[in-house]
Amino acid sequence: MQRTNRRKFLGTAAAIAAGTAASAMPQPAAKNKYPLVHHVFFWLKNPNSKEDRDKLVAGLKTLSKIPTVKELRVGVVASTEKRDVVDVSWGVSELMFFEDLAGQETYQTHPIHLEFIKNCSPLWDKVIVYDAIDV
Question: Could you tell me if 123 and 90 are in contact, meaning their C-beta atoms sit under 8 angstroms apart?
Answer without folding.
Answer: no
